[in-house]
Amino acid sequence: MPASVDEAIKKALANVPADRFPSGAAMIAALTAPVIAKSPSVAVLPFLNFSADPENEFFADGITEDVIAQLAKIRSLKVISHTSVMPFKKRELSLKEIGARLDAANLLEGSIRRAGSRVRIVAQLIDAETDRHLWAETYDRDLTDIFAIQSDVALRIAGALEAELSPEERSRIKKQPTDDLQAYQFYLMGRHCLARWTNEGFVQAIKHYEQAIARDKNYALAYADLGYLYTEIGIGVAGSLPPKEAFGKAKAAVAKALELDPDLPDAHAVLAHLKMVDYDWAGAEAEYKRAIELNPNSGVAFDSYGLMLAALERYDEAIVAQQRAHELDPVTHRMDIATTYLRASRYEEAMQAITACLELDPHLALAHATQGWVYLLTGKPEQGIASLRYAVLLSLIARSTGRSSARPWREPERLTKRGRSCAISRRCRPSNSSRHITWPTSTPASANSIGRWIAWSRRTSRARVGSSE
After folding, report:
1. Is 379 left (phi over 0), alpha (psi -120 to 50) or beta?
2. CATH of segment(s) 41-164
3. I need a labelling partner for 269 at 20 to 30 A (CA). Which of 4, 31, 50, 439 fits?
4. What is the mean pLDDT of residues 334-347?
5. What is the pTM of this model?
6. Domain at 264-332: CATH architecture
């Protein structure tokens, strides 16, 4: 049986309704579609820390992310993003189950043991379906060889999977980000602190990035990450700097990064965000395209580009970009495509995407809020108000316990339908137009605010009914 037919049958018989075909026509289209060869796919599972010092955990996580970054430069490979593999750090599922969850045919497992100036890395590439070992290697070297090890692992995997590799890609993989090992360790510590998404974490991350740059003035990647951090502060994710000052620091850092390395995809992605801050949509689009060209496996770049396209009401393009983001980063970005479907008035698909999100995280306030809007805009005010009330409750619980209801990259409130960044401008307001409806897609900040949400939703519902008569 052809693989395409087998996949179509599996999709039609999926246990979760949201994973099935939305219609018989969609299934027929899948069965009759021309067979296109799929790119080899690989997920790098978090490297295990076998060092005596548990503090080296950040080092193992950093190596994992850097190996992913090296593989992501290869256009002919599909590489699962770091955020999607990290939940599988404890290996609570079989490799076959992990591969299925991530839609990755091959998995790279590894371990790291660091002692003084020596490092021992064991890596093995495994076929997730058959558990067959495709490649394995043990590296026992000086710590100063860490970048050479990362490059070699990426090139060996590409060879084992028979992935096409251009001379430019090979050159970028072999390029070392810094010659200073201490600068690299400061950089890893900065990235580790940034991932906490807290005020304290951001303060510590800035300190470590600046320490890395002090050790190596030519460390382009450290400048790019520092620019990204200040951009997140500017849009209000964390930190206490005024937006103008934060964005100014971000622009200076990313400009330096691109001066040092014009082909650094991370820097182009940050510059795209900053151009959106200035409402330079053409400039932002050019930078997103350049970032994706240099790193064709960046789920974050595809998703952010999709959010920008949705802001400009280019919904078909936005959905294509966000679907690619989901393929590369299957654990995240689900809510962003759900809100794009919502803005495009594709309510059935929006509800399917929301249902899939809630199956993974039943307590995601943002999913319940978006579900509420789908109900309201399809003439079901009672269900809509109930969903919004529950979203408020979940949001209040998250605030009271100090837990975020969603990661920053999963927050779709950054963009409104009229093409403005809500997270940047904070000027998201309902419209009285029945044709162009703009709604706040974040969860209400307090119980009192739900009254305003409900009042507006009722006016919107009446407007929609009146426009259809």
Report:
1. left
2. 3.40.50.10610
3. 439
4. 91
5. 0.76
6. Alpha Horseshoe (1.25)
CB atoms within 10 A of CB 75: 18
Integer Cα distance of 111 and 109 in angstroms: 7
Note the pLDDT tens digit of each residue in 93-139: 999 999 999 999 999 999 999 888 899 999 999 999 999 999 999 99
Is the pLDDT at 435 greater than 80, yes or no? no
For residues 78 and 75, give the distance between their C-alpha atoms in angstroms, rounded to a whole number: 8
**Residue 153 near residue 134, CB atoms below 8 Å:** no
Q: Where do the domains of the chain lie?
A: 3-32, 41-164, 178-261, 264-332, 349-407+441-469
pLDDT in tens, 279-330: 999 999 999 999 999 999 999 999 999 999 999 999 999 999 999 999 999 8
447, 396 Cβ separation under 8 angstroms: yes
Distance CA 308, CA 291 (A): 14
Beta-bridge partner residues of 108: 44, 125
Amino acid symbol at 144: T
What whole-number distance in Å separates Cα of residue 273 and Cα of residue 241? 18
Q: How far is CA 464 from the centre of its chain?
A: 34
235: enclosing H helix or E strand: none
Tokens of 273: 């965000």
Q: Do domains 41-164 and 264-332 have the same CATH topology?
A: no
Tokens representing 229 are 């951090």
Strands 118-127 and 133-142: antiparallel
Q: What share of the chain is helix, strand, coil (3-state, %, to 5)?
A: 60, 10, 30
| Residue 150 · residue 63 · CB < 8 Å | yes
CA 117 to chain centre: 34
Q: Give per-residue pLDDT as tens, 204-228.
A: 999 999 999 999 999 999 999 999 9
Fold of 178-261: 1.25.40
Q: How many residues does the chain have?
A: 469
